[in-house]
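Reader question, answered in our methods column.
A reader sent in the components of a multi-part assembly and asked whether the whole thing could be modeled at once rather than chain by chain. We filled in our standard form and ran it. Here is what they sent:
COMPLEX SIZE: three components
ENTRIES:
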Amino acid sequence: MLTVSMTVNGNPVTSEIEDQLLLARFLRDTLGLTGTHVGCDTTHCGCCVVHLNGVSVKSCTVLAAQANGAAVTTIEGVARNGELHPVQRAFHECHALQCGFCTPGMIMAAIELIETHPETLTAETVRDEMEGNLCRCTGYHNIVKAILQAAEEMRAPQSARAGGGTREPTTPELTTGEGG
Amino acid sequence: MYPFNYRAPASLDAAQAAHGAADNAAFLSGGMTLLPALKLRLAMPSDLIDLCGIAELRGISSDGGVLEIGATTCHSEVAAAPLVRRLIPALAGLAGSIADRHVRHRGTIGGSVANNDPAADYPSAVLGLGATVVTSRRRMAADDYFTGLYQTALEQGEFITRIAFPVPQVASYAKFRSLASRFPVAGVFVARTGKQVRVAVTGAGSNGVFRVATFEAALSADFRPEALAGLRIDPQSMLSDQSGTAEYRANLIEVLARRAVSRPGTIQSFK
Amino acid sequence: MRRKEDERLITGRGQFTDDFNLPDQVWAVMVRSPHPHARINGVDSVAAASMPGVLGIYSGADCVADGLGEIPHNPVPSTQYDVKLTARGGGKVFIGSHTLLPTDKARYVGEAVAMVVAATQDQAQTAAEAVAVDFEPLRWVAETAAASAPDAPSVWDELPDNILVDSSFGNVEATDAAFARAKHVVSMTHVIGRVTGVPLEPRAALGWYDAKTDRYTIYAGSGGAVRQKQEFARVLGVEPAQVRIVSLDVGGNFGTRNRAYVEFGLVAWASRKLGRPVKFRAERSESFLTDYQGRDLISEVSLAIDADGRFLAIRASNLSNVGSRCVSLSPLSKGSGLITGSYDIPYATLRSRATYSNTMPTQAYRSSGRPEVTFAIERLIDKAARVLGFDRLDLRRRNLVPPSKMPYQNAVGSTYDSGEYERNMDRLLKLGDWDGAEARRQEARQRGMLFGLGFANYVESSIGSPRERADLIVKPQGVEVVIGTQPAGQGHETSFAQVTADLLGIGFEQVKIVLGDTDIVSAGGGTHSGRSMRHASTVISLAAVDLIEKGKQHAAELFETTADKIDFVDGSFRIAASNHSVDWFELAGLVEKASPDGSNRLWVRRDNEMHTPVFPNGACMCEIEIDPETGGLEITRYSTVDDVGRCINPLIVHGQTHGGIAQGVGQALWESCYIDPDSGQPLNGSFSDYGMPRFDNMPFFKTEIAEVISPTNPLGIKAGGEGGTTPALAVIMSAVEDALAEFGPPEITMPATPLKIWTAIQQARQLNPTGRGNA
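And here is the structure of the entire assembly that came back:
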């Protein structure tokens, strides 16, 4: 057993846990934040994506212990003062969800993707960068549209955006070849 | 998972001591290789020793034509680092092409190279650039480090601290990704320094990452895709599975080597 | 109209099965067979029982001792218009028993043969590894053709030849005559492999037996809570009223969740034995192994064609692999009724067979049976065009069922209700820019890529459970509609609210749709086969009529007049030419106040039974590029026109089409429940091996909705949930064949992976070294 302390959606949390407890299970079972979902056992599906110190991670493959001292944001912490995040709104407007199971992880992934790409996002970049999230219901078409729409809104002048500040892209686009 | 003790040492000495004190410890870096294995109950370490709290193991620097990357540096950091992008853009590109962005935010070069998964990208760069693997005990040439499928020369309790890449004149990487796992079915890393060209292949060999002597000789004499015309890979020592027969992998290596050479300085990812 | 469901789902407040927890709950993990076929000679749980946290270990013998019943899957489709499948000679289909845990044999890799319950899931898992089952491996057979062969091992002793269904349909004499006089006969044998639904939410169940009330509650996402209540009441040996099923948010279904899973009953039973709630949660690897799987059909088809390209007759022989238990014969039955496709083919014969095998049972999966049968005929027409020198669009046009023949009874007895098939084609060819494809082909060629253009028509059928019930309850704050459908993303809370609001003259926000808890939902047919919109809207329409009548009566009482003096206009009841008016919500408040305890409600219950099927239809085209050096394939364009009848919510229908396309494309290119032929082991047990549609391998879609109103139900609705999948297998393989035309074209089975494509090109080159191809 060990003691972990972290902030989750801005709230400090301290808990005694089993060493092998995964962050996804800590969030769901210990803290009762069931918005983060677990959809697979090989770190593929992305339903479990949360932000760890602002960076998107697959919480099913992170130990809660590894998040000791970190700031974790989950889907429950994304809306501010009852107001939906632009990505949440865009998902709703563009019908980018059906059953909703992949949606929390999808939204967390999309938020981080947009925040780290202050330049214009293309559909191709969105499709490449969202490869770590699976959806079985939508065929991805509307999700791409939602992300592009939200990105445009979030690129609006600094003063109009909550939170401000852009970040360095973490995965730069070097020349890649697709087919021949 | 089977239960284990989690340790988070703050220094190299503490990490070695923790390993010595445990029954059967495994080193934890980003966890993108080890934790999935533990979740599938494929291993049962008594202790996990997290190396990410050790300052010396992180970071990217260069000195006298050698680029050094700390073992616990994550893929996204390598991909974005201006130093790497300037000195060895193909390495930055390779790091930026591993798995998906969430995995890249956690997975590390040390973890990947220590595991030597036959379908990992990094081994081809380490071998292709003739890097030096620096561990807690010694320095090893890449040619000596990779010893077989999932096998490395690392001994019990020994862990990678950093990897030193000699900066080439130019390097490129071309891979073909499996339609399910998205790992390379074959990935070819080509690096040229002066007259010498090294070609390393991952994803395809039944004995792990390997160099292609015939390609290296031809390209050292003439660094053009045409130089590879007629040179074949022997399917005999290729992996064969649902993603590719041995013949298919052999073919991919030929194709990818050509493509890598025809676009030097880039990474190309096909599927 | 945007969805009501979204608010909770985009903020992480959904209620999926694993989100439910009960105090004191414990965990169940299954011990599963590693053998495809083995006798169970004993279950030794001594070592496991003493491990940390273990509370109980149960086997098939314990189920028998407690008198647990078989799951009543009721797999033979039996509504009025279902194609009637029988055993050879017309007898009853042999359905092996499905108890929660088997006592005699394990019949597939992954079959649960014991259950371990422990304080934590990890502890249960570790103990499960220590349970020693005495298996006696038996001869096994997995592959479909092999399972139907004379010397195949018998999955069931009672059915030595494994063939549970062998029915023939159609007019043999007339068909034979047509074949005899035909100028051309074209034949193909299609092997359509097995896939699995992969809903992203792994199945789970939380069972709780409350001794005080003598009731079981099972939280378990499914395709029909009401159905599962009946099924598990039978299994547990209690009255249905003693079982409550709670299935609220469901993370995808696609057919996978339409039948009862043993774990749902096991946790309920274990809860009774242990006096604590018991939870089960499948790992993804368990889902891959033991979710009910889909498709797996061998179809031999022949088409008789005259000199002008008129289709004279069709013969088909279909063999469906149901796996080791018969859970649903829907795919075989649904497909059987549609072998003539969109075409006016006067004569047909069909032999429909089903075989057992030592594999996971199969059942309905997205457009159950129709993608297979569409594949069979559309690919055959492509071949006919190619070998006989017809234009493939032209050959289709001259044979389409014309609108003038609607309703059209096809040669195996299905009556297509309505449709404008040629108009679909024309719209589609324009939408997808068919005429511009040649230029795109040349441009791709310049880049060294092989360009493929695919086309397919489709017609599919939606039958579904014929009964549905709606309760319409007016409360002062809004209208509640209780209905027995079971969505897993189709947006019922939205589209049904639209229909209700429209009928009652109230605001969309004032309607709440209530689903999924059988203590509230008393009856209903669940969701499958595209039935929901049609059945729900029909029964809601009928209920609305009743409710308006009731409202008039209450308003009449209020205004001290008679009901015939009351007009219902725009959601209000009023006496004509007066200002006496009252709306629904005021009326509801008055009704409640009128009762001493405020429990009176202004409400109606309506049941409806509707058997007449509807036939959604459409046309589809796609373009692909193949890299001949690697076999890599990219979809560059995908366009569809879909006739869904009246379309209530286009946003939702397009979304259904998109998702349906992805599942069909997935089967054509990446997905396969592959079984190793030497060991009988399923190999694709994780996302590392099972290829999926992803962001970066799916294109944007161009989808258009056609609305040809169906005469079969008041709102003219057909169905929109499965038309995306129905032509997808055919259209992708049509494009692959077109791209590889210069190499034969070679015959490639789905999934058309890069490996298969490259290998086929190599083989063709070896046979014909002078043939074109790219270096």
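What stands out: Chain B touches chain A through 46 residues (CB under 8 Å). The first strand of chain B starts at residue 5 and ends at 7.
Send us your own complexes using the same form.
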